[in-house]
Each structure stands twice: as C-alpha cells, then as structure tokens.
From TrEMBL, chain A:
InterPro entries in alphabetical order: AAA+_ATPase, ABC_AA/LPS_Transport, ABC_transporter-like_ATP-bd, ABC_transporter-like_CS, P-loop_NTPase
Keywords, comma-separated and alphabetical: ATP-binding, Nucleotide-binding, Transport
GO terms for cellular component: plasma membrane
Keyword flag Lipid biosynthesis: no
Organism classification: Archaea, Methanobacteriati, Methanobacteriota, Stenosarchaea group, Halobacteria
Protein name according to UniProt: Branched-chain amino acid ABC transporter ATP-binding protein
Domain of life according to the entry: Archaea
Gene Ontology molecular-function annotations: ATP binding; ATP hydrolysis activity
Any single Pfam family the record assigns to this protein: ABC_tran
Length: 257, 375
C-alpha cells in the first residue's frame, strides 16, 4: 500500500499520466472491442499507477463504460490484452478477475433490491476471510447507512443506493476500484458524500478508475484525467491541462462550457 | 422480533434456532415452532385415525412433496425455473426398479436406493453442467429441462419389446415397469420391508429431516449466495462468485431431492411408467410450488399435499363434476394464484401476519401514550 498522497500530488509539476515513479497497476495493450461494424474501444493503451485516482471522461459513446466492462470481463475484447499487477487477465472469467483484487460499481445502481442494506453487504463480505460483523459495522458507518441497516434496499434513495454499492465493492478490499458514474443523478450534498468517501478510501491506499461527467466532481477527486473520444485515448494529463486544452473543450466540455 | 430474543442465547435450543432461522425462510417465531410441532404431531397421529388405504394414498403425496421441495429450492431460491424436475424423479424411479428387480435381496434394495439417488443426482449434474457452463439462462433453462423430460418420455414409451430389458428388469414401454420391490431396510437376504404405516413414517421422517436440513442450508452463507444469484447474476459475479458453479451445485442438490422422491414413488406403487416424464406430470411441481409459494419450503410441501389430496378427491368426481375436470381445476387454481397471490399462499399469509403484528404493536404503543398523556 502506498502512503496517502492527498493534495501534495496535485501540486506536483505535470508528470506522465502513469503517475511518475509509482508502479503500474493496470495496463491495457492495444485493447480493442468491435460491436459489429462499430469499434467502441480502438487500440487503447491505458495504464494506471498504484495509488492513483484516475478519471475517465469523454462524450457519450466514447467507450468509457465498454473499457470498464472489458477490464472486469463482462465483455471479451476483440483484440489486445489486459494486465493487472503484472498478471494477464485476458480471457479470465469475471469472478477470477475479482479475486485478483479488482472491484467494480456499474453505471446504473445494481444493489439487491429485495434484500436489506445489511444483507446486501453480507453477500460480498461472506466470501472474504475478514471479521464479518466488525467490517459490516465499519462499512455501514463509512457509507453512512448504519441507521438503515435493516431497511430494504428498494426503499433507499438513489444516492443511498450508490453509496451502498460502493460499500459493497469496498468490503472486498480491492486494490483497484472501478466506478462508473458514481455521482450521476445525485444532489450536491450526496455528491460531496461520495467525494469524501472516495478520498478517504484513497487515503487508505486504494487505487481508483472513475468514469464521470461531472467536471466539478472530477476536479475534487482526481489528479490525472484520461479523455476518451470515439474509442481512442484523445488526451491524458493533469486535470488543469485537460481543462485548458482547446481540443478537449471542443469535443467534450464545449457542451457544458 | 421479540419472539427471537432467546435465539442465539447460547443454549442448545438457541443455537439450533440460529441455524434454522434467517431472512431466507418463513417462520421463526415461537408461535411458528409450536404450530409446526402440532402439525408434525398431527401427521404422526394421522395413520391411527384413518384406514390403511388412506394412509397409502397419503404416502404418495409425501413422496411427491420431495419433488416440490426440489423445485422450490432451485426456483424459489436460485431463480432457476426447471420444468423438468420430473426427469430426475423418473430417472431415479427407473434406476431403483432396474437395480431392485435384479438384486432382489434386502441388500439389493438398499443398493438400489443408493444407486437410484446417485443416478438422479448425476443426471441433474450432467444436464446442469452443460446448461450453466454453456451459458443457457432464464426461460431457455425452462425449455431445455422440459425437452429433456419429454425426450425421456418418448424414449421410455417405446421400450415395450422384450429386447428392452436390463438383466431381469423389463422396461415395459408405455405399460411401465412392474414388480419393483418395496423399500427395505437391512442387509442380507431379508430385511425390514417398509410398507403401509411403516412406509408412511419413513417418508414423513425423511421429509421432515430434509425440510429442516434445507432450512439450515438456506440460512447459511450458501443460501445467501443462492439468493444473490437469483436477484442479480451479473452483479454477483462481480463480487467474485463463480455463478455457473453455484447454479450447478444448486441444480445438483435439486436433482438429488427429486431423485429421493422418485425412489419413494417407485417403491410406493411397485411400479413406474413413462408418464412420469410426461408434460401433465411435469407441470404439477410448477403448480404446487407456485400455489404454495416459491420462496417457502413449507408452502411447497403444504400445497403438494393439499392439491394432490384434492385431485384424489376429484378423481371419482364430485356431484356433476367429473374426474376429467381435475386438471382443469388445478390449472384454474394456478391462474388464480398467479393473478391474485403472485408470491403464493404461504408468503402472502406470512406478510399478513407480519402486518397484523406491526399494527397491533403500534396500537398498543399508541394506547400506552394516550394513557400516559395528562389529557
């Protein structure tokens, strides 16, 4: 586990997108995914260093979610390889990739609607050799749902469901956490809660890849940003540079600028 | 919740209840267990209160209850709707016949029992492996299991010729296999033959043990995994669960349960024929489990006993209603339940009891507050 990085990192001079001297945790090599005639992900070399919070941005259809699904094994690549911690994941089943230390939260909330909050957390937790009751209490606290432990997940608000999902993924103690739009459709307060949650997990040494549209949120959590456009990596670098880049503004930020 | 205070108290009873109770099974209150004990006592006393023929009829219902448990387990808790649980029931019944007829000693019948359960279980494991590792899901599982049952139906129906024999056991084609031995306990040439009341009790206690065993399993972490797979397969895989493997294990256990029922069924009538693989019989477990409640083991058993008793009653006709209406009435029952009680009878009752209890608690709380307030 790397030492907490927090704000100091963001004040460092612009470094390569892999995050300087830290070791590479995740790398894709020439990763490609075709859907019929459409190439959703096109020869992407994407790498994330240990201890980073990397944000993936880009216009709709840029291939962000597809890239995450290729990493978790939800989709099989048409070409290319995926390496995690030096291990070749390509062709492994999803559950085996999870066991190497990857967790994921999909775009739309995927909690077990018919189970209670506590039961939802038990599902991932019971697979680990952690002290279930202790971690359960800690996690409920961390995602601020302790008072709703017995509540059915279907009765949670959108924001609560998103927090619960992050909590479920966190119980596995992943080295790398993939989050697809963790604050989509959330209120300002809820967004703040999630940002705090991510920063605190990051302080504990967790590496993140976050797909997000909300630039305000990206600015709060991220050091390095990768811009995808039409399945290719368009730009990569510190958030300030990306936001200042005219081409990026044109393809993406232009919409809300 | 107050009923559960003594659970987990460290006493033997408390520890036992901890294993038997949980969110995945209905019935955890002291009232429930008292009612359960009374029901079991009534079933134990039942043969003393009625004639031998009725006891034999009732044994048939109990044998079929295993088939209901089998479907309830895989469908209600893992979301795998099999329309062909009768296939494993029938494979075990035929296997019991073939082995039992060839080895007619007491040891032979015991071997037939074990062999038949193994045969039914392996059949389920084999079909499950190809389905779940081949990516067959949802309704395609339903269709494929039904097709397997129907193929067996067609195949067994054409085994009438004398060339269709395994040793001394004639498969018998459409007319079925006769002279299947009764269940026997013991080793050597002769043993305790389970017939009449003995057969009824053997069935009842096996069913009781199976029910309690399944409750423990469903409230264990494996039961939680089953429910997670039922609720969201893709999500469960992203927590590191090997979903095809989980479904294979569940389906295999389901096959074993159906196989136990098949052994009892074949030895009950000393006879088995291809109609066990037919579509009318294949539909019955789906009806029992839908009516009783997919997520209630007790509901599945209760509905099986009730519906089969009703079918027996209708088979001689009631007034102007002839026996040919029996299946129509069962079908109507299924439609009615799907329309008005989609969760099934027992889960609906359970919800009702919960609601009444909550309301009573609220009322007693509000009366307390009124009494305490100065007005």
């Amino acid at each position: 586990m790397s030492a907490p990085e927090d704000i100091n990192v963001r004040q460092k001079p612009a470094v390569a997108a892999t995050g300087g001297g830290r070791s590479t945790m995740l790398a894709t090599k020439q990763l490609t995914k075709n859907f019929g005639g459409l190439t959703a992900v096109d020869s992407v070399d994407f790498s994330v260093a240990e201890g980073e919070i990397r944000c993936l941005i880009g216009p709709n259809g840029a291939g962000k979610s597809t890239l995450l699904e290729l990493i978790t094994g939800q989709l099989d690549p048409s070409d290319g390889d995926i390496y995690f911690d030096g291990e070749d994941l390509t062709g492994l089943d999803t559950h085996k990739r999870i066991d190497t230390g990857i967790s994921v939260k999909f775009q739309s909330p995927h909690v077990y609607e018919n189970l209670t909050v506590e039961e939802n957390l038990r599902v991932p937790l019971q697979r680990t050799d952690r002290d279930v009751e202790r971690v359960l209490a800690e996690t409920l606290d961390r995602i601020a749902l302790a008072e709703k432990a017995e509540t059915g997940a279907s009765e949670l608000s959108h924001g609560e469901k998103q927090r619960l999902e992050i909590g479920m993924a966190v119980t596995l103690e992943p080295k790398l956490m993939l989050l697809d739009e963790p604050v989509a459709g959330m209120s300002v307060d809820e967004t703040d809660d999630v940002a705090d949650l991510i920063r605190s997990l990051h302080d504990d040494g967790m590496t993140f890849v976050v797909v997000e549209h909300d630039m305000e949120f990206v600015r709060r959590i991220s050091e390095q940003v990768t811009v995808l456009n039409q399945g290719k990596i368009f730009r990569q670098g510190p958030i300030e540079e990306i936001e200042a880049d005219e081409d990026v503004r044109r393809i993406y930020l232009g919409e809300n600028a | 919740m107050s009923d559960r205070l003594d659970a987990g108290s460290g006493s033997l009873l408390g520890r036992l209840r901890d294993r038997l109770e949980g969110p995945n099974t209905i019935g955890g209150s002291a009232v429930f267990w008292v009612g359960f004990a009374v029901a079991v006592a009534a079933l134990i006393a039942y043969p003393q209160t009625t004639d031998p023929y009725t006891v034999i009829q009732s044994s048939r219902y109990l044998a079929l209850a295993f088939l209901a448990l089998s479907l309830c387990f895989i469908w209600g808790y893992a979301g795998v709707l099999s329309f062909g649980q009768v296939a494993f029931f029938g494979v075990a019944a035929y296997a019991f016949g073939v082995i039992g007829i060839n080895l007619s000693s007491a040891t032979g019948v015991v071997a037939a029992t074990v062999g038949a359960v193994v045969a039914g279980t392996l059949a389920a494991a084999l079909l499950g492996y190809f389905m779940f590792y081949g990516g067959v899901r949802d309704t395609y599982v339903t269709i494929m299991t039904l097709v397997v049952a129907l193929v067996l139906n067609t195949f067994m129906a054409q085994t009438a010729g004398s060339e269709w024999a395994v040793g001394e056991a004639q498969l018998g084609g459409f007319n079925g296999m006769t002279n299947i031995p009764s269940l026997t306990l013991g080793l050597g040439e002769t043993g305790l033959v389970l017939e009449g009341n003995l057969f009824y009790y053997a069935l009842l206690f096996t069913l009781l043990a199976t029910y309690l065993g399944l409750r423990v399993l469903l409230n264990s972490s494996f039961g939680m995994t089953m429910v997670a797979v039922r609720e969201d397969e893709a999500r469960t895989a992203t927590f590191g669960y090997n979903v095809p493997f989980v479904k294979l294990v569940v389906f295999t256990i389901g096959g074993a349960l159906a196989a136990v029922g098949g052994v009892f069924y074949a030895s009950w009538g000393n006879y088995i024929d291809p109609s066990v693989f037919g579509i009318a019989f294949a539909a019955l477990p789906v009806v029992w489990v839908s009516v009783g409640g997919r997520e209630s083991l007790l509901g599945a058993i209760g509905a099986t006993l009730a519906i089969e008793r009703m079918r027996t009653g209708l088979s001689s006709g009631i007034g102007p209603i002839g026996s040919e209406w029996a299946l129509v009435i069962v079908g109507g029952l299924l439609l009615g339940v799907i329309l008005y009680l989609p969760a099934g009878v027992v889960p609906t009752l359970d919800d009702l009891v919960d609601e009444l209890r909550t309301r009573r608690t609220e009322r007693s709380q509000s009366t307390t507050t009124t009494e305490e307030s100065p007005e």
